[in-house]
């Protein structure tokens, strides 16, 4: 029994750096899956379907963002607006999914704050409360 416990402890000791590096590079896989589920449910409730999207996935921004939201974001590129990237986030402490006011131009990677076709009325700035 002691030998089995020593083997398990040794394996955990050897694999923990690899797991740590994976999470550091790719983000927490549980959080990524949860964010994908929450945002797609939000978009379904608004009336969008997966056929409306050209591309969509979770995203981990490299900059400091609004501290009221989880750091993992979700981005959506709609088929009818392929040059604009929309970002969604989930508020901490059992909050709602919200579209961020800042959209990104896919060609220049600059933020756009003006109204676009898929704007939601209640958007929150991702650059506030940093």
Defining traits:
130 residues, alpha+beta, 6-stranded antiparallel β-sheet, 2 helices, elongated
Architecture overview:
This protein is α+β, with helices and mostly antiparallel strands and 130 residues long. The protein has a domain at 28-112. 33% of the residues lie in helices and 24% in strands. The protein contains 2 helices and 6 strands. The model has no long low-confidence stretch (mean pLDDT 85).
Per-chain topology:
Layout: H1 2-26, H2 29-46, E1 53-59, E2 73-78, E3 81-90, E4 97-99, E5 103-105, E6 111-112
Antiparallel strand pairs: 1-2, 2-3, 3-4, 3-5, 5-6
Would you kindly provide a brief summary of this structure?
InterPro entries: DUF3139. Helix content is 33%, strand content 24%.
Number of strands: 6
Largest sheet: 6 strands, antiparallel
Amino- and carboxy-terminal Cα gap:
51 Å
Shape: elongated
Low-confidence stretches: none
Structural class: alpha+beta
Put simply, the count of helices is 2
Order of helices and strands: HHEEEEEE
How is the quaternary structure best described?
A: single chain
Range of strand content? 15-25%
Average of the residue pLDDT scores? 85
The proportion of residues forming helix, as a percent range, comes to 25-40%
Rg over C-alpha atoms, rounded to the nearest angstrom: 19 Å
Pfam families: DUF3139
Protein name: DUF3139 domain-containing protein
């Amino acid at each position: 029994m002691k030998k089995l416990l020593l083997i398990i402890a040794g394996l955990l000791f050897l694999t923990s750096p690899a797991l740590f590096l994976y999470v550091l590079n790719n983000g927490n896989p549980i959080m990524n899956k949860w964010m994908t589920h929450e945002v797609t449910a939000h978009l379904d409730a608004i009336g969008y379907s997966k056929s409306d999207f050209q591309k969509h996935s979770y995203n981990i921004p490299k900059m400091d963002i609004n501290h009221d939201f989880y750091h993992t974001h979700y981005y959506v590129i709609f088929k009818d607006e392929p040059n604009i990237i929309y970002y969604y986030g989930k508020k901490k402490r059992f909050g709602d999914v919200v579209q961020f006011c800042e959209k990104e131009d896919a060609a220049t990677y600059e933020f756009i704050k003006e109204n676009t076709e898929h704007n939601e009325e209640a958007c929150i700035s991702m650059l506030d409360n940093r």
